[in-house]
Amino acid sequence: MKRLVAFDLDGTLAESKQMLTREMADLLARLLDIVDAAVISGGDWPQFRHQVAERLPVGTRRRGLWLMPTTGTKLYRHAGEWREVYAERFSDAERTAILAAFDQALGKASLPPEKIWGERIEDRGSQLTFSGLGQDAPLEAKAKWDPDRSKRTALQAELQRLLPDLSIRLGGTTSIDVTRRGIDKAHGLERLAGESGIPIADMLFVGDALYPGGNDEPARRTGIDAIQVRDPDETRTVIATIIACLHGQAPLPARPSPAGG
């Protein structure tokens, strides 16, 4: 029997940088009544807090939820309040080299001029993330920018040439995540196993970017059972199915709807 279900965030539990819907938050709370859950994704803690932590219904078993921002290079647990357990941050020299590589790669790519919403490169401490249309771009524009991933795949290849000792992964709909080599979702899941005491064999991973080069793909390297989803709608179906299977298809009690942090 699985004891923990781990999820990607953007494109899996929620649309890019959007809060969990009330239905998704309720499903996650119901899942936590049965097993532990983890969320591991490229966003930093403020994004996790806004998208996930503040959306959980009253009475959620928060102590069973493992929140792992910046591709698992940070871990937050709830003990009266959300607290940082660890963080693996870049040095100043590493950060400078990454920013220089982005400048060079973008110059070589010669992307056509287009409207940008907010900063294109976000420093998340243990990860630097490029967003093709900026951090605040609307969902509709993001969905149209790189649907076949060709723009980001070219940038990824150039960044990998310039930063051979780092990990370069595609994420979301417009993002590229840069972390230290070996810092990916496989690393995060292995740290999760050590922190939680739950072996990988007793975990399940759900993500939308398990394709080659996607930032969920490394999870497969751990041997974890994984489910590819297309979007949050499909994830809701997956969670409901997991709940039914683990709960023996017994009806679950209703939960109060107001959200709490």
Automatic annotation (TrEMBL):
Sites where the protein binds Mg(2+): D8, D10, D208
Enzyme class: isomerase
Keyword Isomerase: yes
EC number: 5.4.2.8
Keyword Transferase tagged: no
GO biological-process terms attached to the record: GDP-mannose biosynthetic process; mannose metabolic process; protein N-linked glycosylation
Cofactor(s) of this protein: Mg(2+)
Record's subcellular location: Cytoplasm
One GO CC term, this protein: cytosol
Binding site for alpha-D-mannose 1-phosphate: R124, S175, D177
Keywords tagged on the record: Cytoplasm, Isomerase, Magnesium, Metal-binding
Active site: D8, D10
NCBIfam families attached to this UniProt entry: HAD-SF-IIB
Subunit details: Homodimer.
Family: Belongs to the eukaryotic PMM family.
The protein's name: phosphomannomutase
Organism: Sphingomonas leidyi
